[in-house]
Here is the input.
Amino acid sequence: MNIKIILIVLGEPNSTFSEVLFKYFNSNKYKKNKKKIILIGNVKLLNAQMKILKQNVLLNEIYNVSKSESKKINIINVDYDFKDAFSKIKINSNKYIEKCFDISLSIIKKNKNCVLINGPISKKTFLNKKFLGITEYVGHKTKSKNPVMLIYNEKLAVSPLTTHVPLKNVTKLVKKSKIIKDTIKINNFYKLFFKKKPKIGVLGLNPHCETTSKISEEENEIVPAIKYLSKNKIKIDGPIPADTFFIKKNMDRFDVGIGMYHDQVLAPIKTIFEFKAVNITLGLPFLKITPDHGPNYKMLGKNQSDPSSIFYAFEIINNIK
Here is the structure.
C-alpha cells in the first residue's frame, strides 16, 4: 500500500490531542516523515491552544488536498465557535467533530492513498450511546460491516471480540461466526501491511476456560471457531486461560491475542506497553489509526501529556511499504 497522505481529524477540541501533536511536530522524528500531513480542524482554536502550551508550529492553511505541501503542516479549516482555548467537554462541539469526519471521509473517497488518524472523542457527549465507540461510528459512516478493533504493538497486539458493551451482555455475543470473521480480518491485515502470517492466540471467556454452568462458551463457540480457522491454514491456538496469556512465554509465542471482552485484553496490554500502542480499525475501506488515549481533560493546557502513542502511530505509518 503506497500511503502518501496522512489525514488527521483533530477530534474533541477540548482534549490533549493538540498537545501531543505539537510535541511530535517539534521533534526530530517529524523531520524524518516523508508523507504529506493534512490536519482537519479549526485553525484559530489550534493557534490559541498552541499559545497556551507555548509550542511553535507553523500551519499551512489550505482549501483542498491539491494545495497541500510536503514538509508542511497543512490544515483544512472547519468552523467552530469557542470562548476558551481549553474548556469542559460539551455537546456544542458535536457538529464540529462530525463535520471534521465528513470532510476526511470525502477526501479519502477521492484519494485512495490516504491513512486516517483521528484524535480522541468523548463517547458520552459525541456518541451519546448511539454507537459503542469510534470504531463502530466510522464503520457506520463508511457502511462497513463488523469493523474490528486491534490494539497494536509490534511485540503483541490484542483484539477484543466485544468492545464497549456491559459485561452482562458479553456471553450473548461470544459466537463462533464472530470469532471467525474477526480472525480472518486480523490475519489479512497482517499479510497485507506487514507481509507475515500472524500467530494468533484465542483467550477463553471463563476462568481457566472452565465453567460449572450447563453452557460452556469455550466448548460451544470458541473451540469450534479455532478448529475451523486452523483447517483454513490460519496459525491459531486456544482457548488459552486469560490469567496466563500475558506471561512472557506466550507474548514471545503469539503476535495477536483475541479476547472475549474489552478489559480482558486492554487492561493487560496498556499495563505492559503503556502508551506505546495504537488502536487500528480493521474492516474499513482504508487504514484508520487512533492514538491509544482518551481526551484526558484533567490534563488540559498543562503540557504534561505523554505523546508516545502519536509518535508510535506515525512510526507505524512511515514503516508501511
